[in-house]
From TrEMBL:
Gene3D superfamilies to which the protein is assigned, alphabetical: chitin-binding protein cbp21 (2.70.50.50)
Residue ranges of domain Chitin-binding type-4 in the record: 30-199
Keywords: Secreted, Signal
Cellular component, GO annotation: extracellular region
Descriptive protein name: Chitin-binding protein
PANTHER family, A to Z: CHITIN-BINDING TYPE-4 DOMAIN-CONTAINING PROTEIN, GLCNAC-BINDING PROTEIN A
InterPro entries with a match to the protein in the record: Cellulose/chitin-bd_N, GlcNAc_Chitin_IntDeg, Ig_E-set
Localisation per UniProt entry: Secreted
SUPFAM superfamilies found in the cross-reference section: E set domains
Length: 201
């Protein structure tokens, strides 16, 4: 009986250590957009295939914060600078053809939505969009984007719920295929999370 109790205590101890390792950053990444649907979500839900490991961890596109002055390098913005998620920055979908798009209308209200697996203290959420005539044949660069966000949602260090929606107005003067870049800036680390969504205006 005493041996069984010791064994149970050891199992509980190992489980606690495992939980501490996970909570202290053993698992990376914690949020993504699904409205408009992001490239990582398209990979996770199987709409786009051959995506590699991002299909199992769409929440993991975490990179340095401070965009556009800092942050991931040009050509790696959509994958947050992670080479293992390079498929997200490809101008074409990994399964071939164009990335699927969400239809939107310039000047209209739109509800953006984030899903979180870890709720970090948050500085803000910012949304950028590609310029008219942007180069669709290469991985996204700052020169393709209007680097002034069309929507900024301050969050003042609060932690979001597991699902967070907020409303904004889509920019006018755009037509055809564009990319919306959503950036979730963390308040108490040096990082932010990046999500690219393909849209058709």
């Amino acid at each position: 009986m005493r041996t069984q109790a010791k064994l149970s205590a050891a199992v509980v101890g190992l489980a606690t250590v495992g939980a501490l390792v996970l909570s202290s950053g053993g698992a990376s990444g914690h949020g993504y957009t699904d409205l408009p649907v992001s490239r990582q979500k398209l990979c996770q839900n199987g709409t786009v295939t051959n995506c590699g490991s991002i299909q199992w961890e769409p929440q993991s596109v975490e990179g340095p914060k401070g965009f556009p002055a800092a942050g991931p390098a040009d050509g790696q913005i959509c994958n947050g600078g992670h080479s293992e998620f390079a498929q997200l920055s490809s101008p074409t979908a990994p399964s071939g053809g164009a990335w699927p798009t969400t239809k939107v209308t310039g000047g209209q209200g739109y509800t953006f939505r984030w899903q979180f697996t870890a709720m970090h203290a948050t500085t803000d959420f910012k949304y950028y969009v590609t310029k008219p005539g942007w180069n669709q044949n290469h991985a996204l660069a700052r020169s393709d984007l209007n680097t002034t966000p069309f929507l900024t949602v301050p969050y003042n260090g609060q932690r979001p719920p597991s699902t967070l929606s907020h409303s904004g107005t889509l920019p006018t003067g755009l037509s055809g295929h564009h990319v919306i870049l959503a950036v979730w800036t963390i308040a108490d680390t040096g990082n932010a999370f990046y999500a690219c969504s393909d849209v058709t205006f």
